[in-house]
Structure formats: structure tokens, C-alpha cells
Amino acid sequence: MSTQTAATILAGALFGGALTASAVYFPTVITSQMYLQDFHMLQVFIVASASSALAIRALSFHGRTSFGPRSPSTICLFSIYDANVIGGLLLGAGMTISGACPGTVFPQVATGIPSGFFTLAGAILGGILWTGYGFRLKSPPSSAPAKSTSSGPPTIQSQLKISMTQALVAYEGICLVVVLLITMLGLQTSLPPTVPIVGGLLIGATQASCLLLTDNPLGTSSSFEEIGHWFWYAWQALTGSDKLKSAPKKPPTRSMMFVFGVMVGSWASAQLATEYLLAAKTLDKISSISAQNAFAGGCMMIFGARLAGGCTSGHGISGLATMGVASFVSVASMFAGGIGLAAFLGQN
Fold first, then answer.
1. Are 77 and 287 in contact (CB under 8 A)?
2. How far is CA 281 from CA 13, 45, 115, 211, in A?
3. pTM of whole model > 0.85?
């Protein structure tokens, strides 16, 4: 095993341990957020993103990372961000149906949550469909009606014509206010209020660890794209078909090694904190994610995540931290899709 691979697995293990400690991976936590019944997930998400923003800013200031905002994702329908919108809607809807997101499905499997196995299977199919066919939907940002700024992908500070420091201070302030409101209004009732806050801070710390160890930000949906590439790579080798050109000659494995580490870290964390997790599992006492819903939701959320160019960790934890407009659009669409579908299902 190379040093780089070992570092990638270690970074994944740290992230997996943090996800498990935050208790955000339980299906009921995710579905309760989308049904606006409990805001545990949102609290973890906001704290993780805010602390990630500070970590990335500190590392950038000291020249330890060059990680920047994500580019817009487009299919040239109505905006440079149209794929961010459509992909985000699919991602959120898939999360509501499956009770998982591209990152939390691995702790679900590692800790033995039944629906997680079906979600993982659906997510793998989503990766295969994306790399075989779906990738053709996307167009370069320059083909869209509006273009990125000449200095790089659009950011909040470039759009508002303020400095990065001003944007960061405003973002941290907004995040702090939202977290305090959730706590003061009692909108997070599943576990003690310290759990999502400490869990979010741990996830933010793993962002710094991931950048230092691998020079890559947190992100998990790309692992399913790698799996899809390997599927078509094997398919072409076995059948001699050259119709599907999406797979490189030798697909990469970095993201797959990272999520392998996530599973190892999640499993280890569960073994070290048995009593805590037994208490936390009361969160899932009403979970009733069916196999078909988990499978369909897993496929939908991965296809959507790859269309949007990132997932809850890639756009949410990492992308928002860089103030990228594409990430804000994707995350807003994700919650709109998830909450909108939950509202529709709740009325039927």
C-alpha cells in the first residue's frame, strides 16, 4: 500500500468517525429534517460547514491548500446553474426517500442499519448509470447562457463585490445565529444539544485533516462515479465493446479508498462508543425505510449529485466553505427537493 493510499484511507476513517459521533447518519435524522420535525441534521450541517470554512481559510492563508470553489454545472437549459438546480432537487428527493445521503450511507452500512445496504446498492447503480449515460447531459460552463467570471468560478464575494474576509465573517455570523435559534427554540430534540454541535466541529476538523493528508476536500459521491467507471471498464474488457467511452483506460481509485476509510472509521467509532450509539439508536425506533425506497432513493441521489457536481459533503461541507455560488445553489436546491417531496408525501 502506497503512502498516498494510506493517507487517503486515514482521512476517510477520520471523517467516518466524525459522522458516526454526530449521529447524523441515522435514516430518521435525515427524514425528520426533511419533514421539518427535527433539526439535528441541519445543525450538524451548518456547524460542519462553518468550521470547514475557517479551516480552509486558515490553510489557504498559510499556503497549505489551493482548494477553491466549484464550477457551475450546466445542461444548457435555462442557466449556467441549471444542472446544480436539477441535480440538487434529485439529490434532496433521494435523501427523503432513502433516509441517507451519499456520505452517510457508508456509516449506515458499517453500523448495520438494514436500509443502508439497499441504499448503497441503488447508489452504485446510480453511479453506473451516470458514467454510462448520464454524463452526456452536462455541458461546459462556457456553453451556458451566462459565464463564470474571468478570475474563476463565481463566488459570493465576487457577486457582492466584497472581500473574502467580509464574506467569511458574514457567513460565520449567519451560521452562528441559525444554530443558536435552533437550540433556543428547541427545534433539535432527538439528542442533547451538544451532540450536533460537537459532531459538526469534529467534521470540520476532518476537513482540515483531509486537506493536509490528501490535498483534497471532503466529498463522497465521486466514489460512486469511480465505481461506475470500473464497471464500464470491466464491461468493455469482457465484451470488447467500445460504445461507452466514459471510463478512462485505468479508472482511479482515490475516492473509493476514501469511502473505504469512512466505513472503517465508522465501524471503529461504533465499537468505541457502544453505550452512546445504543442510546442514539432510539432515533431510529420509528424508521421504516423500505428496501425499494432505499434502493430508488440511493440511485436518485447519486445521479443527482453527479449532475450537480457534488453532494452534501462536496457542495455542502466543502463547497459552501469556499463561498462558491454553485454550491449555494446546489444546497438550496437539495433542501428544496427534499423538503418539497416530504411535504407532498405528507399530504398523501
1. no
2. 21, 20, 14, 31
3. yes
